[in-house]
Specification:
There is one protein chain. By secondary structure, the chain is mainly alpha-helical. It has one domain. The protein is built from 20 helices and two strands. A two-stranded antiparallel ribbon has the order 1-2. A hairpin with a 4-residue loop joins strand 1 and strand 2.
């Protein structure tokens, strides 16, 4: 207990990035409390965190820390983002929005709590980072450790939700504790897990952290995988397994002492054991996952998106941060689409999608092939995973995962970081 209190006390902020990290932390933590606190309190906290994040970036902006092709793509992304923001405030008809939210105060509350605006502000955080290596990574790791502890503590609550919530595929929306849809069940039982899961990013940094701490992160990671299997979360499960494979592959390829034949044999044995386990539990633990695995839950939505996005202007420039498209299945307009690539096109068109993806790919190339340490290579893999994750899932969100990804963009493009060896990285960042 004393260790936990000391950990919390060590998070006292005194630098700009500390405040930025805390804004994301509190925003994520409110995902756990969403169904346990008054909605007014929830909205106020997430609004303050969102507004604070944007304000801190504007206040501490020092210029673009990237150079070369990455810097060019990043500048274009920021310029187009500012154009979209200007359009939203000064050109789009916001009077109807004011009327909908009954005034400027509630409008701002909904605006900064919105999942459609804040995610697009995350790339701006690089403006508040100096061009040198002046970033307090140790503070970030302590926050990650705190998130892991909270994540493990939330397991009992999550399992209680899963075992005590009665749900059905056929009954329309229901309240907590009542019989509802599968979507209601997912939303109520996994909100906290979805918010705190980015702590598992730390499994990439096995080389630099104590094995005891790394195993705690692995326990949290395996726990999240089991919950995703139970809830049949196909996208999250597939990406979780892919991350495991990426970590294993990265360390194996960079371990000169490891026998490649033994590694291949170990991989084949692991795949075989997973296959046998899956078959043995196909009718029990994995039954819902198998049922969901054959469903096409994205095709109809994507078809509706393609049908409504008919003009070249829509595809080139998008429909703005709060852009909508008509969804025939619900016979109404939607502001969200689960496919990451299409979400970026909906917001800012190809003018936003192309530089966004280009930055991540260039960062992967620079961080993995032009670095001397596993620190940059780990961030490079995270950047590549974000590109992979954009289809059919992984739309940008305001959370710790995307925060760390864009910190990774900065690391991968920093010549100073790429020149350091593993020993120097351990001394400087851990």
């Amino acid at each position: 207990m004393n260790g936990f209190i000391s950990l919390v006390r060590s998070l006292r902020p005194y630098k700009a990035e500390h405040w930025l990290i805390l804004c994301v932390l509190l925003y994520s933590f409110m995902g756990v409390l969403r169904y346990y606190v008054p909605s007014v309190f929830f909205n106020v906290v997430v609004t303050v965190c969102g507004f604070g994040f944007v304000f801190l970036i504007i206040k501490n902006a020092k210029g673009v820390p990237l150079c070369g092709m990455s810097g060019l793509a990043y500048k274009f992304l920021l310029l187009w983002s500012m154009c979209l923001t200007f359009h939203m405030f000064f050109i789009a008809d916001v009077r109807s929005t004011f009327a909908e939210y009954h005034g400027i105060t509630t409008w701002l509350l909904a605006f900064f709590a919105s999942p459609y605006f804040l995610p697009n502000m995350v790339p701006f955080l690089l403006l508040a980072i100096r061009g040198d290596c002046d970033f307090d990574f140790r503070y970030l790791w302590r926050v990650m450790w705190l998130m892991c502890i909270l994540y493990l503590c939330y397991y009992p609550v999550s399992f209680w939700s899963m075992t005590h919530y009665s749900w059905s595929f056929d009954v329309p929306g229901a309240l907590w504790g009542e019989k509802g849809t599968y979507g209601d069940f997912i939303s109520n039982s996994t909100k906290g897990i979805a918010s705190l899961a980015p702590a598992v990013i730390m499994i990439f940094f096995k080389k630099f952290i104590h094995s005891r701490y790394w195993m705690c992160f692995m326990v949290a990671y395996v726990g999240s995988i089991l919950i995703q299997v139970f809830l049949a979360r196909r996208g999250g499960l597939s990406m979780s397994l892919l991350y495991i494979a990426a970590v294993w592959g990265m360390y194996s390829l960079n371990d000169k002492s490891a026998s490649k034949i033994k590694l291949v044999a170990l991989a084949l044995v692991s795949i075989g054991l997973c296959f046998l386990l899956f078959n043995s539990m196909a009718d029990s633990f994995f039954s819902v996952l198998i049922e969901r695995g054959t469903e096409d839950t994205r095709g109809g939505v994507e078809q509706g998106f393609y049908s409504d996005m008919k003009s070249d202007e829509d595809w080139m420039f998008g429909r703005g941060w709060f852009g909508r498209y008509y969804e025939p299945a619900i016979m109404d307009y939607r502001s969200d689409i689960e496919t990451g690539y299409l979400a970026l096109v909906l917001r800012g068109g190809l003018f936003y999608l192309v530089p966004y993806v280009a930055i991540l790919i260039l960062s992967f190339f620079n961080g993995y092939f032009r670095s001397r340490n596993l620190f940059c290579k780990s961030f490079a893999i995270l950047c590549l995973m974000q590109v992979v994750n954009l289809y059919p899932y992984g739309w940008p969100a305001f959370n710790f995962y995307h925060f760390v990804v864009w910190v990774g963009v900065w690391v991968c493009n920093s010549k100073k970081f790429r020149r350091l060896d593993n020993i120097q990285i351990a001394e400087y960042c851990f």
